[in-house]
Amino acid sequence: MSIVDVSQMWSQNGGTVTTPKADATDEQYAITEAYQVVCTADTTFFEVKEASGVPQNGQQHSSGRAAFVTTSNPVQISPILWQVTVGYEGESPDPDSVEVEWSDVTSTEPIDRDFNGDAILTFNGEQVDGLTMEISDQVAVITKKFLTIDLPSVAAYRHATNSDTFLGWPPGTARLIGFSARNRYKYNQPQEQWTVTARIQFRRGLAGASDAQAWYKRWRHEGFYVKSGSIVIRALDDNAQETVKPVLLKSDGTRETNPANALFYYTQVYGSLPYSGLGLI
Integer distance in angstroms from the first to the last C-alpha of the chain? Predict the structure, then answer.
């Protein structure tokens, strides 16, 4: 059982090249080639399929295009003659082709200020806690094809907002909330292709925060201890007992007795990176 000769059948070459969109330059390939294999009569199906000279699954097309063998169909013509039809599939990405889809996402957030920024208080001036508001943010789903990607570099963006203007949004408003990359080919070829999908959520500054602080954490300046003179002591209630609820604090740590003057701070929890570095647009 041995292979005697392998030759390509020029009469069987063919295929199609299509462009999904009329205004795009990316191409999709479906190519067919056939090979004639002369062998001894006891040669097996798999020996014919794996014969030297017959392209194997995952092998790149000889033209150098991004088309790879996905099917191999050996058919026995006579005891010593086989025909192997090989099919290639692939696509050449347009480096300027990118799809952007906008949608909304809604989350429920606690609030303590009304639309005008005034503290929400009872008639007697007490703070009202437990109120929430539905906040809608815009989400851009960006899809683009790459020949190579650097996943460790992308990981840094998962905990960073944009330091540059991105898709028209000012710095600090964008946050990467999802990133997936699918390798089109399962074989270790010199030329890879990735389809990348990134989900980026955009938020404007709310409740007195600037756009640059849109993803900062907002918290009320309060606690169980207050500053008295040069020392810090436990806050007391109206009965001169240690309070069981935090009390409002001024910027210097002394007690604030007017809830309408509640002080809020904004704490940065995400880093800042240029989103242009993602190469998505």
Answer: 56
